[in-house]
Amino acid sequence: MHLRPIINAVESALTAQGAVAGGDPAVEEAIEHLVRATGPALRQAALDLAEQAAAEVRAQLADRTVDVVLVDGEPSLRITDAPPSSDPSNEDLDARITLRITPSLKSLVEDAAEAAGASVNGWVLDALSKRANKASGNRGFRTTDSFDL
């Protein structure tokens, strides 16, 4: 994705709307501040959209991993073969764990599962499996937290 042309288009549209004010210096200054402030917000929105796209593609390609990576400061989707691992979904699901969690955490888990297109049980199973495999592999880590550029 190339964000700069999109950001430029939004900034141009805002500047053009400022011209409607007929050269009022206060309006022009306000538009200038608004234009400067939109860049980071637009970049964050684009990263959020890229992560949503990755989640949708990930849900459709079970045999692949889909990540959002920055290439020269621009978000890009990286699709790779899923690493071979022990898949607990191939086993009989007869073991149970009862968890007591806060209502707010339950809501977050439900929202995450819905966004991933999975059931809560499937999403939790996947999250626990990944965490357990990561702990046993003692490899590096991957974060999906957002941050301002």
Rg calculated over all Cα atoms: 22 Å
Structural class: mainly alpha
Order of strands across the main sheet: 1-2
Helical proportion, percent range: 55-70%
**Got a strand count?**
2
* Element string (H = helix, E = strand): HHEEHH
**Discrete helix count:** 4
In words, what does this structure look like?
By secondary structure, this protein is mainly alpha-helical. The chain contains 4 helices and 2 strands. The chain folds into 2 domains: 1-82, no CATH class; 86-149. 57% of the residues lie in helices and 11% in strands. The chain has a two-stranded antiparallel ribbon with strand order 1-2. A hairpin with a 2-residue loop joins strand 1 and strand 2 (74-81). The longest helix has 36 residues, at 25-60.
What is this structure, in a nutshell?
The protein has 149 residues and is mainly alpha-helical.
Tags for this entry?
2 strands; 57% helix; 4 helices; 2 domains; two-stranded antiparallel sheet; mainly alpha
Layout of SSEs?
Elements: H1 3-19, H2 25-60, E1 64-71, E2 74-81, H3 103-116, H4 120-137
Antiparallel strand pairs: 1-2
